[in-house]
Amino acid sequence: MFSLKRFNLTLLHWLYNSLCFVVLSVPCVEVKDGVESVQLPCKTRHRLPEDAKVEWTCIYIRTRKVHVYENGSDQFKEQDQFYRERTKMNEDLLKTGDLSLTLKHPTDWDHYTYTCTVYSREGNILLKKQVELNVRGQCCRYRSEVKGHLDCRYSAVLQLLCLQLILGFTVLSGEQVEVKVEEGSESVILPCKTTSDLPEDTTVEWTHSDPELMVAQVHSNNSDHPKQLDNLYCGRTKMNKDLLRTGDLSLTLEYPTERDSGGYICTIYRDKDILRQKVELQVKGQR
């Protein structure tokens, strides 16, 4: 239902942001999967202060820091592990105004909208620009002495095989899993299984995207992080012990209600690699 109040608030928010910083046009960069690097452009003629902070981010499940420049140098400690050793910016970027970002070895997983934001020392936004990156995937080809072309009609299956070969993950199905349960049940399990003996630095994150994005469970550094969970899931979710050893990353949700219905995503971060499993939960209400 249309809400005039919400529309007015949205309009005021947009006008406020427009007055606070310079918004440039949104270009789209298209590149083929497999190229050595791609440049995300961001240039300005405005004079930037020497103590300005430049931050490249993208949003997938949460805001991820792609590259951070502050105090005259790159701040790699703030960078998301998915982009480690894959990004670089120009020298003297604040003097030249060329804030472009070079992303090495782009793949389908880098297909996002990226945002370049410049902050003043006080934290005010001086400039903001978005760039959409479109990475076109290619058919999987084995590097061997046998030369040939694999039919792209089977690209979905081939890409899945590529992920299993390159990432070391075993994916049971590339399709969305559906789980049904009645309201009032003690618990329900959202399945997600992969290869056993995962590295200790693997991070597993369960999120619920209906009606808004919420974090249901986070496991990293061999421990759970309840402080990062949405209030709706505090004390209601748990994962198996030794999940990295067994590869069983399934999520147990206690006392499910109709409000818990919707799409869930299990995201697995391993070094620079990411794997996702979708689960659709349908909770039937009691009559």
- Domains (count): 3
Mean pLDDT: 77
* CATH topology label of the largest domain: Immunoglobulin-like
Tell me the name of the CATH class of the largest domain.
Answer: Mainly Beta
Which percent range describes the beta-strand content?
Answer: 35-45%
Shape: elongated
Domain Ig-like: 36-132, 181-282
Keywords: Cell membrane, Disulfide bond, Glycoprotein, Immunoglobulin domain, Membrane, Receptor, Signal, Transmembrane, Transmembrane helix
Membrane topology: Single-pass type I membrane protein
Pfam families: V-set (PF07686)
What would the keywords be for this entry?
cell membrane, mainly beta, Ig_sub, 287 residues, signal, 7-stranded mixed beta sheet, Immunoglobulin-like, transmembrane helix
Structural topology:
Blueprint: H1 4-20, E1 22-23, E2 28-32, E3 37-40, E4 53-60, E5 62-70, E6 73-74, E7 87-89, H2 93-96, E8 101-104, E9 113-119, E10 125-136, H3 155-167, E11 177-182, E12 187-190, E13 203-208, E14 214-220, E15 223-224, E16 237-239, H4 243-246, E17 251-254, E18 262-270, E19 273-284
Domain Ig-like: 36-132, 181-282
Subcellular location: Cell membrane
Main location: membrane
Short structural summary:
The protein is mainly beta. The chain is built from four helices and 19 strands. It has helices at residues 4-20, 93-96, 155-167, 243-246; strands at residues 22-23, 28-32, 37-40, 53-60, 62-70, 73-74, 87-89, 101-104, 113-119, 125-136, 177-182, 187-190, 203-208, 214-220, 223-224, 237-239, 251-254, 262-270, 273-284.
